[in-house]
Amino acid sequence: MTTQQFKTAYTPAGENAYNNPYLNVLGMKVGVKIAHAQTYGQFSCIETYLAPRQMGPPPHVHYQLDEIMRVIEGTVTVMEGDKVVEIATGGYHFRPRGI
Question: Residue 75's closest CA among 86, 60, 61, 62?
Fold first, then answer.
C-alpha cells in the first residue's frame, strides 16, 4: 500500500469544501468541510444539522473510513454495534471502520 503525504486543507467558516452547496442526505442538511479527495480517501469531515427528534441516517457501516462525531448542541443517540449510546453536548464519539 502506498501512503500519500497529506497536504493542509482549509475551509473557512460558513463555507464548504470546493465551494459546494449543502447536500440533502435523507432530509439532513450536510456540508462537506474537508472532502475525502483532499485526504487521499482516508478521511472526510461533514457538518450536519438535525432538528429535535429528527432521525439521522439509518444504521449503516463505513468500510473505508473511520467516523468521528462531535455534538455541538443537544444529545445525539447512535447505534454502536448492537448497543445504543448517547452523546451529549460537547461530546465526541469515534466509530472505527467496520462498526
Answer: 86
Pairing of strands 92-95, 67-70: antiparallel
Backbone angles phi, psi at 54, to 5 degrees: -80, 135
Report the C-alpha gap between 81 and 86 in whole angstroms.
13
Measured between its terminal Cα atoms, the distance across the chain in Å is 23
C-alpha cell at 78: 447512535
Give 35-47 pLDDT, tens digit per residue.
888 888 778 888 8
What's this model's pTM, rounded to 2 decimal places?
Answer: 0.73
3-state SS class at 78: strand
**Cell 474537508, residue?**
34
